[in-house]
Structure formats: C-alpha cells, structure tokens
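Cross-check.
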Amino acid sequence: MTLLPGILDEQGRRFANIYNRVADRLIDQRPLHRLPLIHMTAQMEAPDLAPLLEPPVPGRWRCRWAQVQPSTPHRIIGRHSHSVNAVALGEIDGRAVIVSGSDHETVQIWDARTGYPIGLPFIGGPGKVKAVALGAVDGRAVVVSGSSDGTIRLWDAQRGDPIGQPLAGHTKGVTSVALGELDGRRVVVSGSDDGTIRLWEAPTVEPIAQPRPKRMDVRAVALGEADGRAVVVSVGKQGSCC
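Predicted model, tokenized:
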C-alpha cells in the first residue's frame, strides 16, 4: 500500500483507487479470496477496468455484474475494541496523524498514510473518552482528551506521557475540547454535560477565570479569532450555537 501514492499514470491511479476502496475488507481474507472482492469493486466503480482485474484462477465465487452509487475513496484506518467517540487530524514532526478516543477509555495515535498505530494507547479514563484535540504547546506536540468522568488530560503526543495532573472542575462528562491561543497564551477550552464552558492554561493546566454557564448541555466548542478578538463558539444539545 505504501507504493500506491507514487503511481503517476492515470490508469495506475484508477487501479490504486479501486484497491483503496476495498483494502479494509481484504485484511482478514485469504489471498485467493481477496481477488473476487477487488474484481467486484472494479465492477461497481470502474467497469471498464473490471476485465483486467478478473481473478485468473477459480474461487468460491465470481462477480459477473454489479452497480452502486459512486462514492469517494475511503478506507478504515484502525480499530478500537469499543466505540470511537472523537477524532482529530494533525501533524507530529511533519508526519500526518489521526488521534482517536473511545469508550474503552483509551486514546490512540495512528499514522494517517499507513493506518498503523503509533505507540501504545494512552489510558484516558477512568471514564469513556468523549473528546480529543491535537496541537502544540511550548513547541511540543500535545494531545488533549476529555472524558465522561468530567476530567481533561494533556499528553505528550510523542512519548505518550501525561502532562501534569488531570484537569478537574466539570461536574459531569466532558463532551468537547479545543486547543488554541488566547492573548498569546496556549489554552484549552472544554464543554460539558454540566452546561459550562471552561478555559484552562495549557502549560500550567490552571483554570482561567470562572466557568461560563450555559442553559443546556454543551456538545461542541471551538476557539478562534474574529475581527482581531479571540472568541469561543459553542453548540448546545438543543441545536443552539453561540
């Protein structure tokens, strides 16, 4: 699979797209059983290439015709043993990575190109990990995770070590986190089922000001700038955005 991005001619790229669409379903298949799946995918996505991908040896089954609504190329990067609740995409030392958090109380970093896990999972519990963010603090890559036990954790993204103690303050589960900058300081923003939004200074993991109460559970937060002023945007359970 690592060779596929280097294919330059048009037909080669089309073959690579067919393979990428079905690659996640080939993992647990025997080699001879993979050929019909690749051929079936070609029948659906690129019928003109299907004859070139027809299995050269008899198998358990063979696809003669197939049709499907076209979709964009996709593949499964990796799997947790429990439901995945949050993902973030970013870079660590110029390497594209994906960060995921799951009900198994873990945070995992994946290589975005190969799909291989990078290092061991971070134990983000004791609650289910409901939110993750990836960024930089003081020049080092940092992962932020929020859990159903109401805590927020910072991790050294390269070493997997926790940074400081868990941030405690929410009285219910943390549903969203964001990492950004406020007045030149790196800060973490968190939203919770307790109806509050909290700001924390990232290097010292100290709370900033008082929690901002909302009238409903907070489902998402984002931190950015509007007209030269730092702003936090939040979305509530009932669909309100403020």
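Helices lie at 10-26, 31-45. The longest strand covers residues 84-92. Passed to J.P. for a second look.
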